[in-house]
Amino acid sequence: MYAFSATEMTHVGTVREVNEDAVLSRSATQLWVVADGMGGYEAGDVASNMLVEALKNVELNNSLASNIDELETAVINVNQKIIEYSNTVLDGRVFGSTVVLIYVYEDIGFVLWAGDSRLYRLKNRKLIRLTHDHSQLQEMLDSNLLMEHEIDDYPDSNIITRAVGAEEKLRLDFFTFKIEEDDKFLLCSDGLYNAVADEVIESLLNSGSINLNSKQLIDTALENGANDNISFIVIQNNDGQTITNVKYKD
């Protein structure tokens, strides 16, 4: 069984007044979550925190299949709660949250997501994105209607096509994979990867301890004038060493 340590960070960024992101590190049970709320003040932050609170309280046991069901059910239930909150408190106003989570059971990783928050894997010093964005921009790229060099000029780059709370029927993507000895993972909201290029993230994640990685990532994002909330969790396989969890605040 692999044991992981993690550092987490959530920051309002350099432009916005409210942080609509939320993060969850359950290193003792090997579950980590990043949620990016949408809908503005008193909406997006409500949605992301609903997700984190629900996943914080999921009881995980010694059955991988059962735990996967519990995690998926928790997210689906939050989807309905957000819709009910919208109808009763916000006059039907649409709001919600992206979610990306990784749960490690022995040597198996389970990934679930909706929206454009991402999970990356650092393997053999190479950064690999494991999730596929649910966004209009990604659909344009997939359809060859937009080229990589045109991304910066695309006007609707912030439109996501899936989110928890956005529709009655929530569509989630998920998969399992085998954890390997030297794995390092990064979960993050778009506030990080829109401010820091993948090749820079790769270089920083290769530069030392996860505490140093996290400090470098947030400093670089802020130096680049991050115009969105920045949230991420860096996770590293300890190969059986004691699990620790370090939090960085604004």
What does this structure look like?
- The chain has helices spanning about 45-55, 65-90, 135-140, 190-195, 200-205, 210-225, and strands at about 5-10, 20-25, 30-40, 95-105, 110-115, 120-125, 125-130, 175-180, 185-190, 230-235, 245-250.
- With about 250 residues, it is α+β, with helices and mostly antiparallel strands.
- The strands form two sheets. A six-stranded mixed β-sheet has the order 7-6-9-10-1-11.
- Strand 2 (about 20-25) and strand 3 form a beta hairpin.
- Helix 1 runs antiparallel to helix 2 (about 65-90).
- The longest helix has 26 residues, at about 65-90.
- The chain starts with a strand and ends with a strand.
- About 45% of the residues are buried.
Round the Cα radius of gyration to an integer and report it: 17 Å
The helix fraction, in percent, is 25-40%
Instruction: Sketch the topology as an H/E string, one letter per element.
Output: EEEHHEEEEHEEHHHEE
Beta percentage is 25-35%
Strand order, largest beta sheet: 7-6-9-10-1-11
Return the structural class: alpha+beta
Q: Give the low-confidence spans.
A: 240-246
Biggest sheet statistics: 6 strands, mixed
